[in-house]
């Protein structure tokens, strides 16, 4: 088990280095610091002096990879690559282009994102799997057909409709929850209740239909037919055998949404005014704050790789044969 985890962790290191190198090339080779300065200052009537001043204030005036004017280790450390890319591996995100501490902003904004993402993930899994198992239990019946049609209908509706409709119905008409905003502390539930409900409801169509397909595939396997022929009740068969063996593909789907536990939901946070990391990224893109965008891209890749590692570990708990592969 330990050797398996170590091997998977070692696989993640070159992937993370590759993501970091690609990010560096995109932000500093394809889109040079001069281009970033002109975009930030405005393309028209920008003097070379203004560009150099903007770069010097943000540390973009250094050489990219090698500083021939420095001595010793400074030839490699006194560069843009070391300051803006290598330090990310120590989670030293530095300052944003507007002068704010990115690490402090992330530490402050991660909690509103978690307040939405964790309930959406847990409640969503409970609702989606329960609904999918209900359809699988009554497979081939009118209830199953009606459920599939409902899933297709829900899949066909944009998530923006649920957000706008939910705000209008529960906030404007019924006045049950605030339209937008956020308040730290115990009163935060009033502001996250509607986003969480919408996040769960918006995923019923696609997730439940996918889980239903997984359960139906397991139900048609030989071990299920053998257990059914021995007289095992259908409910026990579904909950104790089919669900257990369907956990591997379910865990594969969960890993995709794991980064959102920290990164936040871009659309929900933007529409509901939640000061999380999702809205933080959107604001950085709108303000052309390239330092924040780079930090969030790197952080997202770290979280996704960590999610893959945790999923590989959970695979071995569900099916110990996987660790031998």
* Helix/sheet category: mainly alpha
CATH topological fold name of the domain at 102-324: MetI-like fold
Q: Count helical runs.
A: 17
Report how far the terminal alpha carbons are from each other. Answer: 12 Å
Low-confidence stretches: none
Report the sheet with the most strands, covering strand number, pairing sense and barrel closure: none
Outline? globular
CATH architecture of the domain at 102-324: Orthogonal Bundle
Radius of gyration: 25 Å
- Bin the strand percentage: under 5%
Q: Give the full name of the CATH homologous superfamily of the domain at 102-324.
A: MetI-like
Number of strands: 0
Per-chain topology:
Layout: H1 2-30, H2 33-41, H3 48-58, H4 74-77, H5 80-84, H6 102-137, H7 142-156, H8 159-173, H9 189-202, H10 204-219, H11 222-229, H12 234-245, H13 247-257, H14 260-263, H15 266-272, H16 277-286, H17 290-318
Helix pairs in contact: 1-17, 2-3, 6-9, 6-10, 7-10, 8-9, 13-17, 15-16, 16-17
Structure description:
It contains 17 helices and no strands. The chain has 325 residues and is mainly alpha-helical. α1 (2-30) packs antiparallel against α17 and α6 (102-137) packs across α10. The protein is globular and about 80 Å long. The protein starts with a helix and ends in a 7-residue tail after the last helix.
Name a few traits of the molecule.
0% strand; MetI-like fold; single chain; mainly alpha; globular; 325 residues
In short:
With 325 residues, this protein is mostly helical. It is built from 17 helices and no strands.
């Amino acid at each position: 088990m330990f050797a398996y985890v170590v091997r998977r962790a070692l696989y993640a290191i070159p992937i993370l280095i590759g993501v970091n190198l690609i990010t560096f090339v995109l932000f500093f080779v394809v889109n040079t610091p001069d281009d970033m300065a002109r975009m930030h200052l405005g393309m028209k009537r920008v003097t070379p002096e203004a560009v150099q001043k903007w770069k010097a204030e943000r540390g973009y005036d250094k050489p990219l990879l090698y500083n021939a004017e420095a001595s010793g280790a400074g030839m490699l450390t006194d560069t843009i690559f070391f300051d803006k890319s290598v330090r990310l591996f120590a989670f030293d995100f530095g300052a944003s282009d507007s002068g704010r501490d990115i690490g402090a902003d992330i530490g402050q904004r991660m909690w509103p994102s978690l307040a939405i993402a964790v309930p959406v993930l847990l409640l969503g899994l409970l609702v989606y799997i329960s609904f999918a198992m209900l359809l699988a239990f009554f497979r081939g019946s009118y209830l199953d057909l009606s459920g599939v049609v409902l899933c297709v209908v829900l899949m066909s509706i944009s998530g923006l409709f649920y957000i706008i409709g939910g705000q209008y119905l529960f906030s404007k008409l019924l006045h049950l929850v605030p339209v937008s905003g956020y308040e730290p502390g115990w009163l935060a539930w009033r502001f996250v209740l509607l986003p969480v409900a919408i996040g769960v409801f918006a995923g019923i169509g696609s997730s439940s239909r996918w889980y239903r397909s997984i359960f139906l595939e397991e139900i048609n396997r030989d071990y299920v037919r053998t257990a059914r022929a021995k007289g095992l009740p259908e409910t026990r068969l579904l909950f104790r055998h089919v669900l257990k063996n369907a956990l591997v593909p379910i865990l594969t789907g969960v890993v995709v949404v794991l980064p959102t536990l920290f990164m936040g939901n871009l659309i929900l946070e933007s529409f509901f005014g939640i000061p999380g990391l999702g809205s933080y990224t959107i604001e950085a893109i709108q303000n052309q704050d390239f330092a924040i965008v780079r930090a969030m891209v790197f952080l997202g890749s770290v979280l996704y790789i960590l999610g893959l590692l945790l999923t590989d570990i959970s695979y071995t708990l569900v099916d110990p044969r996987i660790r031998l592969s």
